[in-house]
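Blackboard transcription, Thursday session:
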Amino acid sequence: MKNNLLEVRNLEKYFEVSSGIFSRNKSIVKAVDGISFDIPFGSSLGLVGQSGCGKTTTARALSLLDPKTSGTVNFYNEETSSMQSIDELEDDELKKFRRNIQMIFQDPYESLNPRWNIKDIILEPLNIHNIGNLKDREEAVYEILKTVGLTPPENYMPRYPHELSGGQRQRVSIARTLIMKPKFVVCDEPTSMLDVSIRISIMDLMLNLAKELEVSYLYITHDLAVARYMCDRIAVMFNGKIVELAETEELLNNPIHPYTKRLISSIPIPDPSYKRERYELDFSELNNIIASNSNESPMAEVKSGHFVATHDVKGLL
Amino acid sequence: MKNILEVKNLSMSYNTIDGEVEAVKDVSFAVQEGESFGIVGESGCGKTSVAMSLLQLQADNGKITNGQILFDGKNIVQLNESELRSIRWSGISMVFQGAMNSWNPVVKIGEQIREAIREHYPDKSKDENTKKILELFNIVGLDSSVIDRYPHELSGGMKQRAVIALALSCDPKLIIADEPTTALDVVIQDQILNEIRKVQEVLGLSLIYISHDIAVIAEMTDNMAVMYAGRIVERGPTKEIFSNPRHSYTKSLLASTPSVVGDKVKLKSLDGEPPSLINKEPGCSFAPRCPYKEESCNPLREMELIEINTEHYVDACNAGNL
Amino acid sequence: MNNEKNIAKNIRKASIKKNWLMFKKSKLGMIGLYIVAFFLFLSLLQPFLFVTGLWNKGIYDPVVGYSEQFQDFLVVDCPKEYPTEKYKSRTDCPARNEINIRTLFYSDAQVGETIYQNLQPAPPSKKHILGTDPLGRDVFSQIMEGSQVAFILGLLSATLGVGISTLLGTIAAFYGGRVDAYLMRQSDLILMLPTLPLLFIISAFSELKVWHLAVVLGTIGGLGGSVITIKSQALQVKVKPFVDSARITGGSRMNILFSHVLPNVAPLALLFMVFSVTGAIASESILSFLGLLNIDMSWGLMIYLAQVEGYIFSGMKFWWLILPAGLSVTFLAGGFYLVGRGLDEVFNPRLRRR
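(Written on the board underneath:)
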């Protein structure tokens, strides 16, 4: 019985920032400061937080772009039917492993090589991993273009990215990402640079493909409303730590951590008659609480599937 | 209540290598004293072009081809550069998109604001100006020490607040805010929006709020207009439009906005892309994408706003729909 | 799938046309293009004229041709002091149709006599549009030959230089660390060295032919400052999301370097190439002018000859020995520069269409 696709424990990513050319003092920026979560097969987790909270750093670490400082990241290995740490993978195995992890980027204008045509862009993963012969590959490109709604495919294959609109480019990114049928896709705010009316079609496309291909998403966004639409569960990040993690509706209806409450209450509602209650929060106070607590702050399961960072639970329930 | 601004049949186009781009066509609306008016639409709908035309700040290759802009009763379209300069900032001021990043990095914030004040009130002394700036900072929620800080020492939210202070520095009657909170965190955005509302109440200002985020428009504005492909497709009191949207585009926009409250609903998206405004054909620009198209739809029919309720205007095509 | 090929061809045609229109808009670029085209025409004209027999090689060959032009000369004795009745200054004596008795070594002629002599260098005439040089060779033919030399030299050294600097710059950006540090120090070192004195030294050690010069110029240019600029461009490309995307997919470093980073650095490199042709042409003419180059004919050499034979200080009397060559160097070098400026606008669109 397959359980988790991904298990992250105490992931940390620190950056060294030297304060000058001749300075010996190197200050450390803890971009990701010990986060843990699981992602089951075919389920999506939203990672929500404001800029600088560490969500993009997490995304890059999980997609193996930048090496992590410490912590364990275990992926389910089909061949051995068990969880395997990515640290144990050697070069060749690593390359093969990459077939299962992909990433969709935020900026549709910079995530496609402007000198390549659409066909080559989508072909690249197949070429790198030597799947089938040329004819098979071209057919796969043809099919996936149809799947993502860029029809007729032969009109799009010879084109270059600058001839397509933002929404079309994101579809190409999705096609390229999913042509290898990966199990895990990290989505870094893929719709935030698109027009509102187009966002839904891209999000619906991603949801449909997730169901069809049994893909799990780690969906990164600053927009809780989008996370609600896309994800089964949501984790709220602040200052490099996860402060709350729960199923979507549970998190929105019963937030516990003060930061989550503040976040939810700040979101403007598209209804002029809705009276929004702003939850006032003193951020400096919150920083003190988090800083004064020691390194390990495991999360407590307050309700089934609803986790909150422990040092804040006391006195809040 | 008097109308501080009346825009009548404004049309503007840009002359580009690819052809004539009709960015704004036949736009009319009015803003009363103390009122907050919202313009909502997606990229390319013309809302920023409208804003720039109000102050005649459009690019060199753009020009107003038709219409009047009456500020305090006076048509400002025909004014020359020096007359316009006297209106800019002291009559109408603007918070541009991305304004917080256009602070001069080598000049202190206070000095940059003083520069603006000096343009319009050259006789005031430095002390008077400093006092004024500190008052403004108080209103927008900035600490008085900011006056001597450089832009890079401030956070995004603080820079944006300073931009608002700059816009208020010459006591304008009307402020145009073009996506003032787009790049900011939602928590900071909430604070800034609060600040703007407070400023409006305290100073009795009129505000034109431009955004693609319909939720912000819902919260911030008394009246609003929905723009698509350079035209206003629906216009009226904000509450009325949200409870009784008539135009197909307005309905689509509302139906494609996810929300954190209420039931989780399956949202509807729009197919296709906004039309190219280059050498545009006459007729209804929304017809190719309209999900509520009827048998009687005639895409070549020109748009025309009709009043269906008190102050609620919508394109004649949708006026008949219920 | 045939349809797809057609669409691809059309797209390519449309994009070339669009680039051409953009280039056309730049006045500087177009002026430069006309100049370069003109000289290109000249370089191709000469072999054409010889091959078709319109020109007699014996007379018009720029190196070994010889054109006999005899005319009557009045023998005079130039005075020691000026001004005199007849001559206003030293350069006026001997006049066009006169000859100074002191320059006659093998003749018994006396002052006042007329002798039939060879007129070299001859001023422009119907037979020779730009006249002849002191050795009786047609100047116009020499200009055309010089044009060929300039093009070959310029393009060869530019290509070599750009090839080297693009490769090195991209490698420095991509691999970073020690490789980068070494390449940057090397660039700094080369930047420090003044090019011309270096060329003088090299020519002292070995006879420099055009090919040698091209290689030397290309190598020095390639290892120098352009590496730094290309590296900075490559760095910008390296952090773009599509490179990340290729890495995540599993592409090898080499693969990403050549198929993703290089093609995006290429336009800038092309620009550099055009600009470096300017320097190459100028360097060649200076070296030839100083007599350091082992070359049969080039513009710089023409001026060198004029100087060596003492014609430079004769004012405008022998202008056809100096002006055509000098102007050619200036115009062609400048022309390439202008083309580079025009290309700049095509390759660096600040606002990409969205």
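Lecturer's comment: The interface with chain B takes residues 50-51, 165, 167-168, 195-201, 204, 222-226, 228-229, 248-249, 252, 262-264, 266-274, 276, 278 of chain A (CB under 8 Å).
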